[in-house]
């Protein structure tokens, strides 16, 4: 436990509104009461958190984010949520975080002011945090085509104005909605502008879409659950991933709690590492799944019988796949120092 917390870790798959802890939500609720907003979110913790025995499946999970969204719809609350979440990742021993979030219009913010608020909060965090944070702009699959273009242009603009914060773009949201092909022009434009791309890939059984995504050659993919034939993929999808070796952001507890994977033991982590596909241990939504990055490392070690040295190397390897090229070496050195100091 202590080792997993002390190990400097790299988090590359964390959705802001899914990462709000119970403490952060309580603080936000208090803030809303303070500013006179009526509290319409009774019993929201029970609804927001999805534990291992929960009957809800992946498809039902997308509704829970609207609970968090009610608490982050003003610039002040969004800034508070971002700050508290960054602090929690740092307290858990995270040395580098790529936070992701979907720009959205609220009664108090436009998509542009939403994303500006998060960017400026991240920028200011460098004054009081040792953890380095960057931002990935999310596109939700439920977004109409016209807005996909708007978000992509916004991401490109923010990347130009804040190259020290914005590093990538990603596609998430309910995987049964929309079609990946329709995002390709927007993603190509973002990529041409210099943004890195990550895709939620293979969360549900859809081998054709998995192939289309892999053929796009994203810099990383999220989950990658239904790519191996054992989990609803095909020989072709698995062979393609093995050939391309695209790094996979692995979210163990998220996959187990949403029933995307039957249990930790049969998680595809095993198949990925056996085939030398790079893996990065991540949390996905630490608030929704009541987890932390150090807990995910601990679960991984316990389930797959990994030594502390192996765990440290998992963290070290993750440094290679961060989107901020300019700090890869600094992070790498930090991890190597930790490994040497602890004779791992
Ligand atoms: P936000 O982007 O509002 O900060 O974070 C919540 C959003 O992240 C959700 O509305 C959803 O679009 C996305 N998200 C969070 N967890 C998952 C996940 O496990 N799978 C997918 N596909 N999307 C997710």
Automatic annotation (TrEMBL):
Gene3D superfamilies: Metal-dependent hydrolases. SUPFAM superfamilies: Metallo-dependent hydrolases. The keyword Transport does not apply. One of its GO terms (molecular function) is adenosine deaminase activity. GO terms for biological process: adenosine catabolic process; inosine biosynthetic process; nucleotide metabolic process. The keyword Nucleus does not apply. Keywords: Hydrolase, Metal-binding, Nucleotide metabolism, Zinc. Residues 8-334 form the Adenosine deaminase domain. It comes from the Eukaryota. It catalyses: N(6)-methyl-AMP + H2O + H(+) = IMP + methylamine. Its cofactor is Zn(2+). Belongs to the metallo-dependent hydrolases superfamily. Adenosine and AMP deaminases family. This is Adenosine deaminase domain-containing protein. It comes from Arctia plantaginis (Wood tiger moth).
């Amino acid at each position: 436990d202590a080792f997993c917390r002390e190990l400097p870790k790299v988090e590359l798959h964390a959705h802001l509104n899914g990462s709000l802890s119970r403490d952060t939500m309580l603080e936000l609720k208090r803030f809303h009461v303070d500013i006179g907003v009526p509290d319409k979110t009774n019993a929201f913790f029970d609804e927001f958190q999805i534990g291992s025995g929960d009957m809800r499946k992946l498809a039902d999970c997308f509704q829970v984010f609207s609970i968090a969204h009610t608490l982050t719809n003003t610039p002040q609350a969004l800034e508070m949520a971002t700050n508290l979440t960054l602090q929690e990742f740092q307290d858990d021993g995270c040395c580098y975080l790529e936070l992701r979030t979907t720009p959205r219009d609220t009664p108090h913010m436009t998509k542009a002011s939403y994303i500006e608020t998060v960017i400026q909060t991240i920028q200011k965090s460098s004054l009081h945090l040792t953890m380095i944070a960057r931002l990935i702009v999310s596109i939700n699959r439920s977004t109409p085509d016209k807005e996909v273009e708007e978000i992509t242009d916004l991401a490109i603009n923010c990347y130009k104005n804040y190259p020290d914060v914005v590093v990538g773009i990603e596609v998430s949201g309910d995987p049964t909605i929309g079609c990946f092909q329709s995002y390709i022009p927007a993603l190509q434009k973002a990529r041409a502008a210099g943004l890195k791309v990550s895709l939620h890939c293979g969360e549900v059984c859809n081998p054709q879409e998995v192939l289309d995504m892999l053929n796009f050659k994203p810099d990383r993919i999220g989950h990658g659950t239904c790519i191996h034939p054992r989990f609803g993929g095909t020989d072709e999808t698995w062979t393609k991933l093995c050939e391309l070796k695209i790094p996979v952001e692995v979210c163990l507890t998220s996959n187990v709690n949403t029933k995307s994977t039957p249990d930790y033991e049969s998680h595809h982590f095993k198949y990925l590492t056996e085939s030398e596909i790079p893996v990065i241990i991540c949390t996905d939504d630490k608030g929704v799944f009541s987890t932390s990055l150090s807990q995910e490392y601990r679960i991984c070690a316990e389930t797959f019988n990994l030594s502390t040295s192996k765990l440290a190397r998992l963290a070290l390897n993750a440094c290679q796949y961060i989107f901020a090229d300019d700090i890869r070496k600094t992070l790498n050195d930090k991890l190597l120092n930790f490994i040497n100091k602890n004779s791992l």
